[in-house]
Structures are given as C-alpha cells and as structure tokens.
Design a protein that fits this description.
- The protein has a single domain, classed as MetI-like (MetI-like fold, Orthogonal Bundle), CATH 1.10.3720.10.
- Helix 4 packs antiparallel against helix 10, helix 8 packs across helix 9 and helix 10 packs antiparallel against helix 13.
- With 280 residues, the protein is mainly alpha-helical.
- This is ABC transmembrane type-1 domain-containing protein.
- InterPro entries: MetI-like, MetI-like_sf.
- Its main location: membrane.
- Belongs to the binding-protein-dependent transport system permease family.
Length: 280
C-alpha cells in the first residue's frame, strides 16, 4: 500500500481516536457541572447521566453560605504562594549552580538530588507527623509548605539543570567581565532567560499544591486552617450521608483556578519541558 493510500485509510481513524479521547477527557467535567445543578431529589430519582429537572444555582449559593469556603480559598492561596516562592528560588539557583559552577562532587550532588524521585511522599507521612508534632508545627502553614517544597525539589532542580546546562557560557562570562558576581549573573541574566522553565515548574507545582489532600489531611485538624480540598468534607453529614448537589458545586468552584492556571501557562509549559531536549 502506497503512502498516500495509508494516509487516506488512517486519517479517519486518527480523527475518531481524537474524538474519543476528547469525550473521555471532557465528560467527567460535564458530568460534575450538571450534577452541581441538581437537587437532592434529582439524585434519588434520575439516572446519574440525566440532565437536572431544572437548572438552578441554589447549590452554589448554599456552598457560599454554609461552608467557609472563602477561608479555605485563603488558606490554599497562602500555601500556594509561599510554596512556589520557596521552590522556585531554591531549585532555580541549585540547577544553575550545578550546571555552571564547577566544584568538587558536582555530579554527586546532582545524583543526590535525583534520589528524591525514588521516594514516594506516603512513606514520610508518619515520620513527618511525629517531627511536626514535637516541633509544634501541626495546624500551621509550614506543615504543608515544607513537605511540598521538599518533594518537588528533585524534578524542579533537574528541569532547571537541563535548561542551564545548554545556556551558552559566553553569556555568563560576558556578565562576569562586566562586573557581575555569580549571584548578579543569575538574577540579571539567567532568570529572565529561564522564564519558560520558571513557568513550567510553577504551573505544575501550583496544580499539585492546589489539589493536595494527603498533606493537608495529615497535618491539619482545625477548621480555620483547612484547605479547599479538605473543605469538601463539610458536605458529608451524619452516618456519611453526602449532600451531593453542594458537593459537586464545591468541586466546580475548587477546580476553576487549576483550569485558569493551565490555560494561561500551557504554552510555556510545553516550551519549558522541551528546553534543552534538541540542543547538543
């Protein structure tokens, strides 16, 4: 079969596969949105895939009135901002130093950081809970921020290292000749050039941080320190009975920021993930 004939045969199949994948990706979001408009009576009488008997926003109003979701959003935003700030500063500086500053045990340090990729966060829950309890850090922002930064450092440093490794040395040398110290070269030269990498790491970790449940559920107990993911439990009542309408409405409100982050930074994420991949 000729190449042109193969293309004619496989083109419809590729289109069909794309449509199927799109439906698989979009349907859960569509289902949650429809469910957020249903009443409790609709959940009892209608099939799960059915449209609500009447479209209303009462569930969203109830979320804002019954649950302190504004407080949960505030806590999640504070954790997100501080996590990203600490992570981006440490990982970008470490990646630049490992790639451009030659010192003894340079490769050993890089491999040491990469060991973090082999360690699942679940194995550290009990030890960290014990340590934070003795240090009085439970029910604090630090109890969530520190583990998230620690477990994100490995892949963040690797990404910044890959970018910095292929940055021309002449640029750094020119900055040093002009009187810049290594720190000034990093701030004035490297940071502006690594915008894609910064946005890639920042957007990836922002989504992980915003959707985090395991750290918050382990280290947070007081209601005024809950994050948005823990706040969904507010709609689970006596004997585990769930008020599904407000629950789905809360899920929609919680996922909106992640969609905004993705759509605003997806182009930069793709560019940052491939930075250095085609250079040699």
């Amino acid at each position: 079969m000729k190449t042109s004939q193969k293309k004619m045969v496989f083109a419809p199949l590729k289109g069909l596969a794309a449509v199927i994948l799109a439906v698989i990706q979009v349907y859960p979001i569509f289902y949650v949105f429809l469910s957020s408009l249903k009443t409790q009576e609709d959940f009892r009488k209608l099939p799960s895939y059915a449209f609500p008997s009447s479209f209303q926003l009462a569930n969203y109003k109830r979320v804002l009135e019954v649950s302190p979701i504004v407080t949960y959003f505030k806590n999640s935003i504070i954790i997100l901002v501080f996590t990203l700030a600490v992570l981006l500063v440490i990982s970008s500086m470490a990646g630049f130093a490992l790639a451009k500053i030659k010192f003894k045990r340079n490769q050993f340090m890089l491999n040491y950081f990469m060991l973090g990729l082999m360690l699942p966060c679940q194995v550290a829950l009990i030890p960290l809970f014990t340590i934070f309890s003795k240090m009085g850090l439970l029910n604090t922002y630090a109890a969530i921020i520190l583990p998230q930064v620690a477990f994100a450092l490995s892949y963040s440093i690797q990404l910044f290292y890959s970018f910095s490794k292929f940055m021309p040395n002449e640029i750094i040398e020119a900055a040093i000749i002009d009187g810049c110290s290594p720190l000034q070269s990093y701030v004035r030269i490297v940071c502006p050039m690594s915008t894609n990498s910064l946005l890639t790491v920042g957007s990836m970790q922002a989504v992980f941080c915003w959707n985090d449940f395991i750290w918050a559920n382990t280290f947070i107990r007081s209601s005024d320190m809950k994050t948005v993911t823990l706040g969904i439990n507010d709609f689970v009542g006596y004997m585990g009975v769930t008020d599904w309408g407000p629950t789905f409405a809360a899920i929609i409100l919680i996922t909106i920021p992640t969609f905004i982050i993705y759509f605003l930074t997806s182009k930069y994420m793709l560019a940052g993930m491939t930075a250095g991949a085609v250079k040699g």
